[in-house]
Amino acid sequence: MLGIEYPVILAGMGPSGTASRGIARAELAAAVSNAGGLGVIGGAALSPDELRQEIRKLRDLTDRPFGVDLLLPTLGQLPATGSGGGGAAASWRELVPGDVREFVVQLKQRFGLPDVTPEAPPRLAPDYVRRQMEVVLEERVPVFASGLGNPAPFVPDLHRNGTRVLALVGNVKNARRVAEGGADVVVAQGHEAGGHTGRIGTLALVPQVVDAVAPTPVVAAGGIGDGRGLAAVLCLGAVGAWVGTAFLVAEESPLDPELKRRILEASEEDTRVTRIYSGKTMRNIVNPLIEEWERAGVPTLPFPFQGAIIREVTLAAQRAGRKELLMNPAGQIAGMVRRIRPAREILEEMVAQAAEVLARVVPARVQFSPP
Q1: Local mean pLDDT, 10-residue blocks, the chain (371 residues)
Q2: Phi and psi dihedrals of 330, rounded to 5?
């Protein structure tokens, strides 16, 4: 269906650390596509013009299929703030409760950060997602993935373009919803995953989603760090794997070297699910900012407002060189990732190991007799 050689899809990873425009950019996506998987641009933080440039750059780097991942909030959640200028900044900030604004000021003081007041993120403009989607349609992207939200309103136009539609979900209810809305592939993402994630583990979630949306194919995500994980989800009924953390430390990944090091040194217990960076549940390498927010018990705001208000802290931290305070999403398989290497090598080793497990390892270890 997707025209790829191997059942491995690069997760459309967005901003992380100092890579404010996203991790899954053209170079990393092209490396995965050229290796036989499906490279996916994480376009959530890219303006429409930047997204168009990134798509065209990717096309210069590969003639293989690729995708674009965007976040689709409920459009009614977005305030009528205009296009993101100073007036827009004042307008959205008025919607933030006073205790949250005060706590953000205290955080900057506590960590010794400069006083930085960023402009309103363009995501708060009501037409931002629509304009991103116009680019996806105009550029006739082969595959579109909705990292958050239901792509149903855009499916008819995408299908007219010949674009295949993937939708990420964290439970059976939403899996049924996106399948009924026309998604060609449902990506069932388990709790183990890095970045935005749900509450159900991959092992429990995937077979339930497979049964619920059949015959729509299902791709598994969360906790897939090598070929053993790929083989496991294929046995659960998935047709492939959506892989993020394993590619975070690829040579082609633009993640800051210090944040790559933190992932390489992490154990399976060094991640935590938090809402402080976006308002949605997100698995991140634990850091002092997460711990301080949770210790204070200050409520987080809905998506996308939480991301806008916390940016006052993270932008200040970035300017001060305090990388340990920055967002660093990673999954629980971080404890399996131990070296930096090319994306092609990561993918080829994963596929080869999965083939070995399915063809030889399991049959050699377990002998089944028909009941």
Answers
A1: 96 91 96 99 96 99 98 59 45 79 94 85 73 98 97 98 98 98 99 96 99 99 98 98 98 97 96 95 96 94 88 94 96 96 99 97 84 77
A2: -160, 150
CA 351 – CA 330 distance, rounded (Å): 21
Angstrom distance (rounded) from CA 277 to CA 176: 28
**Sign of the CA dihedral with 191 first, then 193, 196, and 202 last:** negative
Q: Is the omega angle on the peptide bond into residue 302 within 30 degrees of 0, that is, cis?
A: no
Contact call for residues 241 and 233 (beta carbons, < 8 A): yes
Domains and CATH numbers, the chain: 8-78+126-271+328-364 (3.20.20.70), 83-125+288-325 (no CATH)
Residues 245, 229: Cα–Cα separation, whole Å: 13
DSSP 124: G
- CA distances to 38, 60, 202, 301 from 226, in Å: 16, 29, 15, 35
The reply to whether omega before 342 is within 30° of 0 (cis) is no
